[in-house]
Structures are given as C-alpha cells and as structure tokens.
Amino acid sequence: MDETGLSRHWLDDPPTVGAVLVAHNGAAWLPKVLASFADMFHAPAAWRVVDVSSTDGSADLLRDSFGPDRITYAPSGTGFGEAVRLGVESLPRTDWIWLLHDDAAVLPGTLAGLLDVATSADDIGAVGPKIREWPSLRRLLEVGLTVTNTGARETGLETGEPDAGQHDRPRDVLAVNSAGMLVRRDVWDELDGFDPNIPLHFDDIDFGWRLARAGYRTRTAPGGVLFHAEASRRGTRRRTAGDVPPWEARRAALHTMLANSQGARFYWQYLRLFVGSLLRVLGFLVSKDPESASDELLALRAVYAHPMDLRAARRSRAMTSRRRNRDFSGLFAPFWLPYRHGYDAIRDAVVALVKPEAVETVGRRSTLGDQSPDDADDLDDGPTLLQRRPWLVAALVLFALSFVAGRGQFGGVDGGSLVGGALPPTPDTAGDWWQLVVERSHDIGLGSTSIGPVFSLLLAAVATPVWFRPSAVVTFLMLFAVPLAGLTAHRLGRRITPRRGLRIVWAVSYALAVVATGAVAQGRIGTVVALIVLPIVVNTAGQLVDAPGWQLGLRLGIWVSVAAAFAPVVLPICLAGLVLLVVLEGRWVLRDGIIAAVVPLVLLGPWLVQRALHPLRMWWEAGYPLPGERPGLDTAVDLALGRAGGPGAAPAWLSAGLVVLAVLALVPTRTRAYVQVSWVVALVGLAFAVLGTTLTYSTPAGASDITPWVGVPVVIWTAGLLTAVLVAAPEVGGLPRPMLAGLAVLALLLPVGTGAWWLVRGVNDPLEHSRPDVVPAFMVQRPGDTLVVTGSVERGVDLRVVRGDGPFLGQEALVPDDERTDRARAAVSRLLARASVSDVRALSAIGVDAIYAPRADPEVARRIDSAPLLEPAGSDRPGSRVWFLSGKPNTAHADGPAWHWVLGVGQAFLWVAAIVLTAPVRRRHVPVALGDEDELDEVTS
Amino acid sequence: MNSMGSRVLRTDRPDLAARLRNLAPPVVGAGLLVLAAVVPAGGDDSRPPVPVTVQESSYACPAGQDITVAAGQVERGTGATAQALPGKTPVTALADAGAWRTTQATGSGVIVRQKGRASGAVGFYAGTASKKHGGGLAVGSCPATFEEGWFLGLGSGAEHESTLVLTNLSESPAVADLTFWGPRGPVDAIDADGIVVDPFTTKRVKLADLAAGEPELAVHVVRRRGSLSVVADDESTAVFKGTEPVSSSLAPSRSQVVPGLPGDADGRTLLLLNPGEQSARVGVRVIGPKSTFTPQGLATVKVGPGRLKAVEVPRSAGSGRIALRLTSDHPVAASVRIAPDTKDRAYAEAVAPLEGTAVVPVELGDDLKAPELVLTAPRRAGSAHLVAYDARMRRLAEHDVTIAAGTTQHVALAKELKAKGIAYVLLTVRGTVLGAATYTDGHRVSSLVLAPAPVTVLGPQVR
C-alpha cells in the first residue's frame, strides 16, 4: 500500500533504478532479504547480483531468485566496492544505482521513499534510507553518517535509540551507509565509485566525503526504511579466505581521514592521528586488550608506511574536488565528540572493573529469530519498575532524598566548595591535587618537603575529568554518601541473603548508619569514603573465599588501600579481618590473604611509612584532625548505639532496637553460626572504637593530644549487628503476628527514624558550602604566610602557618618544614612572653607577614600588641584580631629531593599497574558465525 | 517413659558451656563498653605557662640633665643599643652589653635594647629633684613594656602633683587607658581613655590635667595597644616635701606583702585601694626584725568600695625595718608612703616574692651611697646570696644573709661587702623572700623594689 503514491511527482516520469545486490556467505539472511524484494511499490528497473565466493549456499538462493543471468561471480577477496563495480559494469545504464547488502531487508516503500528525496533537487548525488536494526526492528542504526576528527564513524544516535519518528525529516549528511544507498549513476561514474583501497569499512563515508567535495549533496530519506543485520561489522558472517583482517576497519578510517583532509589541516591530522593512535595503543594495553592494541599498530603501519598510496589517493580526490572541506564543515561531527566518547569509554571501563555484573549490553537478539520486518509488534509493558527493580527504585529514591538532605550545599557561592568541620576546601583544579603528588616541595605555610597523602592521588585521578570543578567530586562523595554507601552495601547484601526485601532494608540501614554518626555533617570525608568502600572490601573478601586467586587478592588489597588512604585506621582493622578470614577459612586463602595484606603496604608506600613512624597517627583521617569523644559513660552509650560524638549525629536511641535485635538474633540455632561470625566482625569494630577513645595522637602541624574520631570502627560495629539481624531474620517466620510486628518495628526504627532525621536535619553545620575561611579574605593576597594563633596564655597557644587562603584538602596532611616550625614556635613563644624586635624579625625570616587571631584571647592579643614592628589592622570578623609585620617576608622555601616527583609518578604507576593486573585480559569477541547449524543452535538457544 | 523423656531433654538441652558460648558475643561487647566507660580520660589538656628564656630586652628610662641612667645585666649580652628620645639619638655610653654603664643623657627618655640569651638586661635611673619639684632623691628602675600598672600615692592637688611618663618603645602607636580612684571613690577623669603615644616618643601626662584637685589618687594604667612603658613621678611641695618614682604595686589581691619599710617609726602611711564594689576588711600584720605581730591600733582596716584609703601606721609597728603583711576579704592594692621627716618621701610597694636574680644598682651617680637592703621572709625562713661586681662585671665580694621565718632583715651593702668600686650587686634568694633597696642621701630617701632581672619570663606553651 502506497499512501503517498498519488502525490509523488516523480511517478509522472519515473527515474530508472538499477539495483546491485552484493552477497557473501549471507545465506542466513538471504531468504528474508529476497522475500522483501518481492513486494515493492516501486521496483528497480534492472537487477544485478554479485556473489563473492559464497560457500554457504547463498549462490543457490540467489540463482533461484534472480536466475543465473543476473548473477556475477567475483573471486574471493573482492571488496564491496569492487563487487559493486562489477555489478554496475554489467548493469544496463539507469538514472540511479541502488546498492543492497545480503543482510539488509527492505520494506515495500523503501525505494519509493528514497526516490522521493533523490528527485527533490538536482544537486543530490546520493540518498540513504533510515536503517533500523534487524531483528529488533525498532532500534535505529543509522540515519546518515559522519566522521569525527579522530576517525571514528559517527551516527549521531544514542546506543539502542528507538525509532519514534524523531529523525524523519530529510537532511543533508556527509554520507549514508552503502546498504540501501541510492546514488546517481553519473555521479557514481564521475567519482569512479568506491575507492578500491577501502574494500569494506569506511567506503561509504569516503564516498560521501568525495561526493560532497565534488559539489553534490547526500541526503537522508527517512521515508525509506531498511533493516540491517550488519553481519560484517558484527562478525556474524562466516569468514572465508580473502576476507579483510580485523585491523582493516581502523586502517580504512585513517586512510579516509588523511586522504580527504585538505591544506594545512592535513599535516595537523597526520600528526594528530599518529600520536592519537599511539595513545590508543597505550589505552588498549592498559585496559588489557592486546589484540586491539595490535590492530591499532598494524593499521597505523599500513597507512603511515605507505605514503605513496596516500599521495595517490589524495591526488585522485583532488581531481574531482570542487569544494573545500570547510564549505560543508557543518556535516562533520562536533570537535568535542571524541572526548565525550573517550569519557564514556573510561567510565564504562571503570564500571566494568568495579561492578562487572552491572554492565548491560544493548546487544542484539539473534538475527535468525522468527520476527521479520513485518512483525514489528509493540513490547508488552510487563510489571512495574518497582516490582521488577525494587533496589533500583530504592537507590533512585536515596539519590533524590540526598538532594533534600543536602539542600543549600550544592552551590550558591562562586568559587566555593564544601568546607567546615574536618573538611578543608577543595582546590581550584584537579591539577592542584596532581601537583601535590609529584611536586618536590609544597607551597604551604612554612613550606613542606614531605610526601603528599595518597588520597590526593586518588582524588586527582577521579577529579581529572572535571578538571576545573574538583569540588564536584567532594560534593558528590559527601552529599551522596547515603546512596553510595547503600549501593556498595546492597551489592554485598546479595552475597549474604537472597531475600530482596531484607537486603534492601539492610543496605539502607547501613547507608543511614554512616550519616547517623555525623561523619557527613562534620565533614569527615575520610570516614565517608572508607565506609562507602568497606562493603566492597568485604564483598571482595567473600569472592576470594569462594574462588581464591591472586587477582582477587590483589583486588582486595587495592580496595583496602583505597579505604586506608582516606582513613588509615582501616588498615589495621582489615588486617585483623584478614587474620579472621584465614582462621575461619583455612590455609587455602593464606596466599591470597598475604597478597591482600601486602598490596596496601606497597600502594600506600612512603606515605604509610610517614604515618607508621607515629603509629597513633593512623587515626588521622583525610581532613583536619578534629577530636572525637573521650572515654566515659556517655561515650560508652554512644559507641553501643553507633555514635562517635560530635555535631550532626542522629539521636542515639534510634539504634537501640538494633542492639536488642542483634542479641535476639543469637537465639535461632539454624543461623547461629553465621550470626556469631557477624558478631565477631562487630566486636572487632567495637574493640577498635573503644581502643580509639582511650588514645590520643598529635599532628606534626601543631594540634596534639587529639582523641581519635572512631566513626569507622563504630559503623563496622553497627554493620556487624545489622548483618547478624539480617542473617537471623528469616527464622522469625513462625512467630505469632504481634511479636512479628514488634520485631519489625524494632528493625525499622533505625532506617525509618534515621532517614526522617536525615531529611529534617540535613547534613549542614558545621559542613557548609562557602569559600575558605581560615583567614579573612583581605589577607589572602598578601605575599607572605599568615600565622594563625589560637588558645590562651593560661591553657596554651596553638599556632598554624597558612599560605594564601589556607590549605586545601590534602595539604592539611603535609608536614611543615621541621626547622621552620621550630623557629616559628620559639619566636611566638618569646613574642608572647616578652616581645622583641628579633622575635618579629624571626617570623619574617620564615615567611610570615601577618598574624591572625580568629578568637583572640584578650591576654594573647595584648601581648602581641606589645610587640614592636607589628601594625594592628582591622579584621572583618567579630572577636578576631589581625597584625601585619613590617618588613618583607622571606618566602623562599627549600626544595625537596628530586626523587620526590619520581616517587609520586612511581606511586601513580603502581596504582595503575595494580588495577590493570586485576582486570581480566580482553580477547576479541568472535561471534558465532551464523549459518553454521551446530553453532546456530547455541546462538538461538 | 518419663525417664526416657527426661533423657531426651537432657540430650537436646545445650550444656552450660555451649550456652555461655552463645552469650559470649554480647558479653564481650558489654565488657568493651564498660571499658570505654571506666578507662580514665587523658589528663587536662591545658598547658600552663612556662619559663621562656629572654633573648632580647628593651626598656625605657626617663632622662634629663640631673638624671643618671644606668644599664647593666646579669650576664654579658651580645649587643646593645641605646637611643635618646625623641630624636633617637644614639647614646653610645649605654651601648656596651658587657659592662655596667652610666651616663646622663639629654632628651625626654632613653630606650635601651639589649640582645643576649638570658642576659637579664636591666636599667635604672637616679637623681635629685630641684626644690621646685620637691627636692627629693629619686631612684627607680627603667620599665619594659607593661600590661597594666596599679599606682598608689599619687596626687593632682596644688602641692602634690604626679606625672605619668609613658614611653612608646616601638614603631607603632601605643594606646593606654587610665582609671582614677580617690578617698571618696572613683574619680571621673577627662580624656583618660585612649591616650595615644606616638612611636618612639615619651608622653608626660600630668594627672592634674585629667583629674585636678585630688590630693590623694590611685591610678590604674592599662596598655590597650602597642609597646608602652610607664613610670609615675610623684612630687610634693607641701610641708612634707619630696620626690619619688612610684612603681606599680601588685594587682589587687587578697594576700600580699609590702616589704622594704626603712627603720623609722614615723611617717609611714599605708595606702589601700579597693577597686571592687564591696567593702574590704584588711588585716594588717607587721613582719618585724624578730617576729610577725599585729600592730596595736591597726588590726583591721575597712576600705569602702571604690575607695582609696590612707592609714597611718602606728608607732606600735616598731622602729625597725619592717614589712606589712596584708590579708583581706576582697582584693585590694597596697603601698606604703614613707616620709620620715619633711624633707623627702619614698614609697614601698606590694610586690611578688623574688624569683631569680635581682640586680641592685650601686653606682648611680657620684654622691649616692650604696643602698641598704631590707629583706623579708614572710612565712618560712629564706636566705639571700649577694655578689658584688664592678663596672667591668668582675666579681668583687660576696655575702650571704639568712632571714628567719616571719622576720625582716636588713643588709647595709657598704658594710657587708667590703670592696671598692662596686657597681652593682646580684641578689639571689632561696625560699620566699621579698625586699627593697633603700637609698639615702642625708635626709633624702628613696626606695627601690627588688625585682628579678628578665632572664626568663613566663610565657604560654606554644605548639
């Protein structure tokens, strides 16, 4: 049925169309393809079939359908372009040539739709149909083609994008697929058809490009629809001798790009593609895909080692060229598209590495299914998303609620970032974090030549894609801590229980336990990251127990390293856990356990040594060392109920039900063994928490006698209790209903109550989104450092020397220059005892040119006031005092040893190497060739 | 059947050990929590002030034609500078950090800056005032930067005039606030707050310009900003004439000792300031040459709130060298005016017990004789070790003094340290000892509080 037939102007004088069908081992598709040709509204005037040495019976099918006279047999190895050339030569002269593949079926109106567009203007040289995937039928494959600067074929469509008529407007494009391409015969002759140097891939793009340079237009004709199995590209066509090698696709891309680039841009592209290809080789090697790396190198060699071929190709194109590339620049892909693809590829690689089972494919169904193009039915809606994917819905809800809880924290102040509590501001760019890793000396107050913290390396790597907004990383980690912790916990939950509902409640409870400690509100990014990662650590340990292997041991070590980089106390806790694992599981996990224990020592490297020299500093997490709770009855109660003290913690009684349930969980005998294991894990956490409250540590930068914050072990305690309840929960089935209801209320008290508290309170205070406020803004631009003085004469004075607006996240962990620190302390000590000129000059000599007392103790202020060479200045903050030192500060700092940057780069390399080693080696995907009966069963089953 | 059933029960029932094992996790958890509750928290994290070795000292001395300025130290310094104000003219005679040096500098004052680790640099000044200014002997120490000072015995009447000499020792402007009290209560003064002293200048503030017509005044001076030293000059041209530099008394406290009253029963006036808002009852005990006792007629003195009270010390206190020990129910500041005759007057101020080494100046001009030390051990017995040095810091003589508990002793330096050319004496005490040096020149008298040289000072612990 042709609903538009009556309005088609070309029907008055229909143009002649000659069709050329090229077949090569296409027996799997040909029956349906040939059938689709039988019922066309407007059929080609002439047909020619070219069979390229098919061995699967295709020739017979073609002969039966077209008769032996219309078939040309081409030898093995004949490219698509050459095959078309053979077909065209034996085809009577027509106005248009219609190119068809043996794996592409048409609809009755396909050719008519193409002619609608083809005849709409005189300068149209080629038109192409809207190509849908076969057999899904609704997914779009192509509606026109273009190419990126890096030589990537670009359709402009999303992967798996359904056809809803959104591309049904004809438009000019650079090229159209050769499958279904309708090309003017005179144009074809003028351009001498497809380039024989591009036998299969990219021939269509090259042809379209040349056509555009010759002054013609290529347009899409969405009214013509074609269903394409893409057998060659997807490797589902049985291969025979003479087929193009796998690297041909990349060679054709490079050849096309270089052959068609003009003027100075050619030289730029020549260099860029060379370097880019080498980078791609590196990328493939890093992602453990040696075959792709090899293909890339072979393609590079094939193009760059034959400059004369390239020269000839460029010369032939120049002969038919009438336009410059810039005249139709709008037909090319935007410049940023390759970077976007690169980002997507890295993201996919990371997702695949972190969560391999989450990687979904939009892969095709069998192309041999019963569904033919005529059977395109709508999909059944099925059950609701909540029924099908309850955890997905829960996670989305948690993300949405995070926006509510984090209200006011997502922005509002230009250049601001999350700060407050233990969280220093974020640097301006990710480069600052990289600098922290590799620089020999650090530009902080008093200078530093110490080794930067490892977590800055991790933050730098994660923040690199958002180079100029690294605060986005910190914001994401802090404000979405609940859903992130929930995601990792839920994944672990799959290992613990098959019951979906219980698992979701458990995961949400864990996630809320993180925020209930006050870790987010207090800006304790170390705790937050460690608690997000810890479920992955446990999950990986579980995988190790299931199937020991050095790669899993390595992966476990890496995750422990990530957590320990942010919260070093995780390291001894995990070592205790590993010992527990070996004790419970036996010697068969010993080797991999040792690997998991050694890897963090290597990856955390010299920074760990710095911490190990002062073991109690293992309690110092990323960020400022804000103290936790000291021992006492209140602390004991807090610990029991999963709190670690400080502002922003949820009411402790919300966890009371959990403790009761965890004790009751020991009652059922069937699950008791697992419940006891959970209790042991919980007790390890509690033991570390109690130990932490009884200790104190000091930092090299000034603060001392700090009672550790025990947020991490406290949540481990809570998580252990939660797991005990989760394991025993199925055993309550036989209890009376009132008792069940009571237990349910107790179980839901934590997630529901804490969730409500989280939403109502939010995660602000002291966390806030603002600019750094270590010193007043008017002091930031001063040439020297600022001495920040806090405390009192009677209770002691603490000093901190800051550069500019103070340290960013990562710099707070650096050790200031020892000698300068001692000099600063001595000078300030004398200054506050009996100020003299030499004390002030001593401060100038170490780079200080201002003194700031944020909460100025009157006695301290009076003593500083009495010092000579100090000029009092007004402060914009109530209760604070500022003095400027007269004289020029000596801001020259000593450089660290040259091996520091080597160490930083080496450490980064070690991380990359470790991650690469954990990834499986990727092999080229070789789909089962269709048409092979034995393998066919496998594919269709 | 029953026996079988009971056998089955026994078999199914977990034994005690198994039950205990089941209970172990919560019990261990509870034990850990008890541990968290009972483990003592770390000690108080406060860090009290500690002695800090002085590396550099600055002080300011009044200067003038009739004033001899002396500079010395406990140990040789590494360098010294002296500048006469207001022009910051170098005074080379005071610039040797390895000697006792004296000079008469011209100008409104002299600032001496001396470097050297634990050098203990100190300065003194001495002179005899003209008749127009009371005609008395004045010996005082050159103060360094102060925090606050309580000056008693000053006046702003026609024949009793006092002047505060404020010297700015640094490049930044300095600011001071003054508060006045008189016998009838707080005295409203004009422009007494925010007195600005320009860098490296001396400002003489006549009390009569701020609060005129007050024959008896107490002044509280607070340095608000900058590096400032203060000296109070007290002059009387009334019947009881005299001149004396008044040192700051101890800040108001409930227990204090006023040492250094010379041996004459007449002309001792106890000055008590109660800056609080409640009446203070002050008990007075005399620490005499042999014992401590309550003087007849002066057992208790009541001082009204915000009042300055002058009380005659009765003759029952004895004619020997004495000290007064004062205890009160509310903080008071105290000093004693000494006017043995009508020719001159001196002041003894309440001071803290001597800690460290004090420098007693001897060579303070041609006519001044070596002083007499009046030392008091208010509670337990104490001792003092005296070492005399010449101007080149060579040791000349030594002398030890023992002070019995609750007594006051005196040491005539000229008599006990038989040596010529003594420039200064270093006094080191053991036990709780307070004291003053009394200088006399005929009828003229002056008292100098013994204070430790700045070898170490208390400073906050810094980290």
Automatic annotation (TrEMBL), chain A:
This is Glycosyltransferase family 2 protein. The keyword Metal-binding does not apply. It comes from Aeromicrobium terrae. The keyword Cytoplasm does not apply. Keywords: Membrane, Transferase, Transmembrane, Transmembrane helix. The chain crosses the membrane at residues 474-493, 505-538, 558-582, 589-609, 648-667, 679-697, 709-728, 740-760, 898-917. It holds the Pfam family Glyco_tranf_2_3. GO terms for molecular function: transferase activity. InterPro entries: Glycosyltransf_2, Nucleotide-diphossugar_trans. Gene3D superfamilies: Spore Coat Polysaccharide Biosynthesis Protein SpsA, Chain A. PANTHER family: GLYCOSYLTRANSFERASE, SLR2126 PROTEIN.
Automatic annotation (TrEMBL), chain B:
It comes from the Bacteria. InterPro entries: DUF5719. This is Secreted protein. It comes from Aeromicrobium terrae.
